[in-house]
Amino acid sequence: MLLRLRALLFAVAALGLLSACASGAKPEAMVAHTTNVSAPTNPTLQGAMQIGTVSGGSETNPMWTSQVDDASFRTALEDSLRIHGYLAPSPAEARYTVDAQLQQLDQPIFGFNFTVASSVDYAIQGPADRRSIPISASGRATFGDSPIAVERLRLANEKSIQENIRAFLVELSRF
Hints:
single chain; alpha+beta; Double Stranded RNA Binding Domain; elongated
């Protein structure tokens, strides 16, 4: 009886540890959809952009904290540009290249509500010039979003990057 109780407690503890593993930000959760952006598409850039280099992200260590990796950020940025009509049908048809460097992902260490601040330097290379557009944004996840801290941090990361991309799209409307 005592042996079964110990085995059951061990299984519950192991399951608890496994459920607390950090996971990286999901690209689909970072996409800035048309409902998130109130700015119109810039006709000069419409169908004329491609993604160049995306850098500065970090891989997630499951035993530590959720991060945003370069590939996930690239996918979210590309999907956002496509949804808003900025992405060129093919790289050969692009007149502008967007590079994005994730400068900072400022994450809290603990708390009930997590606010993550992201800073990204977007650079647009066009036919005549190169323009830098630095964007800082934040995203918040509450205990109501998830009672599990590592999940809450991932959600705050995703919301921060989504808001960052949204702000970039607003800047593109004024480009």
